[in-house]
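Give me structure tokens for this 198-residue protein.
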Amino acid sequence: MGYTDTFIIKDRSQAEVASLARANLALFRESAFSDFAKEGLYCYVYQGKGCSFMQMGHMAHEDRIFGLVPVQLGAVFAIVREQDGDSWQVSLYDRLEHIVTQNVNPWAFEPSPQTSEKDETYRASRFADKWGMPVADIQGYFRYWRKKTALKWTKRTGKAYPDDEHGYGDSLQSCDFMRRLGASLPAKAEVIKLTDKG
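Here you go.
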């Protein structure tokens, strides 16, 4: 299963993040990387509104190189993972402390996950409190793609918010969520690649 990770770093600039990402990459000897990584390793760093954000793949284990950048900056950060069109999830951290994680479609990974609609409310509230925003601005994204009826979970329809581009059941709903946090494209990227190493 493939995925794409976006790290959204609250109150940090693109320049700070890109500089530290380059420094982390410089710590590795070229012999540490497979031939694939030498060609395919990348990290894009963008300036958002009240944040910066990094997008990276997983095939060259980019998270092992760039994933500690927000921790090194002492930042609050979210990792949004878009999972091959099947699902998306968000995990929130304050430096090394995990605050909360929400996967909107746990059914993609197991047939009968232990879920509750109370989880949605609790997790949205934890996230909003730490990020410093009204819970009403993100509550809709913490809803599961299925809703509880009398006897079972049924498919949820519609969108989290009327101005969203993507609805429930579409993993690109994660883009609407990231936009609410200040991370939206198009933005000018600073591209960091292994081939940049001198």
